[in-house]
Amino acid sequence: MKTATLGRDAVMMLSHRFVRLIEDRSDALASGLLHKVQRSARTEAYRKVPPDELMQRVYEIYRHMGEWLLDKSESDIEQRYTKIGTRRAEQGVPLSQVIWAITLTKDNLWEFILNESYPDRPVEIFGKQELLQLLDQFFDWAIYAAAVGYEWAAEANAQAESKIRKAG
Hints:
single chain, mainly alpha, elongated, 84% helix, 7 helices, Globin-like, disordered N terminus
């Protein structure tokens, strides 16, 4: 029983080590993601988003990844990404491109985690696997919440246009 506990503790330590690496390299990760979003044909409408705004949003997520994965609730994630979805709708970015940008954000982290390692010991593999599962959960919630925010903005816009037509 004690061996299983020690193994689990080692896995948790490695997960935390990877989270700290993400946080420590958040500037470079955010910059790399910005470059990917700007180059991708699937995110062309992001040219409407000021690069500094996108960079800051991504940096804040990466810089505080440990909090987002371990301390924040689904409600916190929903609140943050609902705002992002709403903002992107207001900027005229199609929902498909919002979703793709979030997917690129996740893929950027996956790539970093998979490339940042020591010889693959079983405990390290489990630590990576645990972290990748946490990231998947986080970004699944983020995509859902961004879509909800986007829909809210689209509905508000439709209602405003309807009022204008009725008044005019």
